[in-house]
Design brief:
2 domains; 3 helices; mainly beta; five-stranded mixed barrel; single chain
Length: 405
């Protein structure tokens, strides 16, 4: 006589929770919880003994493409294969994220996006209706104001913190391809107008990346120089005064092994400030894909000047190892994770296709003539490029973006 197999919904709760705790991918956890009501109740009981621990998350690569958007999960690959692609159901309310342009992210599944390509800038928390409008205008010295387009952004604290600052790399609108990029800042809850960092200090040194580090605002320029502003919070006006800049580093050579600098990023790793440089073939080569990546650490030295007085000097020094770290690079949202916490993974640098940052004229084109590429994604591991994300044709709405856990 054949043995009767009990239905899946009859599995004991403790076994279900044990299985659930082994599922690391957030998308797979949602699928498991949706099998039936019994499974959903078993894995979502709050405070129960044996409650599944929160999965060890890594950033996912979101590839926006209207209704066909997808997300690439590295955890599902086990660390040594091609990432697994899941469907991404982007919300249509309170903003239509399916047809928005993404320009950054923050911890806790926050995303920066422009609902109308060149306007409607907001900070949105995935999975909720929470949106925080960001300034579409910037005031400059002399009392004038200009419409701005955000190209990259970062924040100093979690939204809702009393001292949360937004810093963004912007272009004035209408976009002039020959004009310089600027840096705007704004304290949340203090007016609707952003302010420009003193342009004279970054003239001819276009900003490449922005980040907050130990409370200070750091701006990396195209030449590899680092400029630092120190915020002073007030209860009046725009709520903050920015003091600076202080120059803390000299630039790096623009060419390495016949390769030219493609892009540069700042990241904090093990309390150290790092510079990540992506190199590509020089101008005239048929491909502009990343060919090599290098890592530099900010080093501080006290050296005597011409009068014998000790002066603090800063410089970028190349690193030979990542010392057990995985680093995900993106403007305003680079993050570092310890390899030891992710069995099967190896130290390396993960990057995405953000070449549209250098072509802001794309934003003003009609959707039919606008194409954001999504093919130069991957990782630098064992001194080579590994295309660990499945190829994607790109779309008319947005470049790819990291979703940070």
């Amino acid at each position: 006589m054949a043995m009767h197999t009990p239905p899946w919904e009859m599995l004991p709760d403790d076994i279900l929770r044990l299985v659930f705790s082994r599922v690391e991918c957030r998308a797979d956890r949602k699928v498991m919880a949706g099998v039936c009501g019994a499974w959903r109740r078993a894995v979502k009981v709050k405070g129960a003994r044996g409650q599944p621990p929160r999965p060890r998350q890594l950033p996912c690569l979101l590839r926006p493409n209207g209704g066909d958007s997808s997300v690439c999960c590295l955890l599902c690959s086990g660390g040594d294969g091609i990432s697994v692609v899941h469907a991404a159901h982007l919300p249509q309310q309170p903003v239509d994220a399916r047809h928005a342009r993404f320009f950054g992210s923050h911890d806790g599944s926050w995303a920066f996006l422009a609902s109308a390509q060149t306007s409607g800038h907001v900070l949105h928390k995935f999975g909720t209706d929470t949106i925080i409008p960001l300034p579409d205008f910037m005031d400059v010295q002399g009392g004038e104001s200009y419409a701005i387009v955000h190209l990259a952004a970062t924040i100093s604290h979690q939204p809702g913190h009393a001292s949360c600052l937004v810093a963004a790399i912007v272009k004035t609108y209408p976009i002039d391809a020959t004009s310089l990029r600027a840096v705007a800042f704004w304290r949340m809850g203090h007016g609707t107008m952003a302010s420009e960092l003193h342009r004279a200090e970054i003239e001819a040194m276009e900003p490449e990346d922005v980040m907050f580090h130990k409370g200070d605002l750091l701006v990396l320029t195209e030449q590899g120089n680092l400029l630092v502003w120190i915020p002073e919070y007030t209860d009046e006006g725009r709520g903050v005064e920015m003091h600076g800049p202080e120059h803390r580093a000299c630039g790096k050579p623009r060419v390495y092994n016949e390769l030219a600098v493609r892009s540069q990023y700042l990241v904090e790793s093990q309390n150290y400030l790092l510079l990540i440089v992506r190199y590509r073939e020089r101008e005239g080569h048929p491909t502009s894909y990343a060919q090599e990546l290098k890592v530099f650490q900010m080093v501080e030295l006290d050296m005597p000047d011409e009068n014998g007085i000790l002066v603090r000097r800063y410089n970028w020094v190349e690193m030979s190892s990542l010392f057990g770290e995985m680093i995900f690079v993106g403007r305003g949202c680079s993050r570092s994770y310890k390899v030891a916490n992710y069995p099967g993974f190896a130290e390396g640098l993960y990057f995405l296709d953000d070449g549209s940052f250098y072509h802001p004229d794309l934003l003003s084109r009609d959707a039919a003539d606008r194409k954001y590429t999504c093919s130069d994604n991957g990782r630098w591991v064992n001194h080579r490029i590994d295309r660990c994300f499945p190829p994607e044709q790109g779309c008319s709405w947005s470049p790819p973006v990291w979703v940070l856990p």
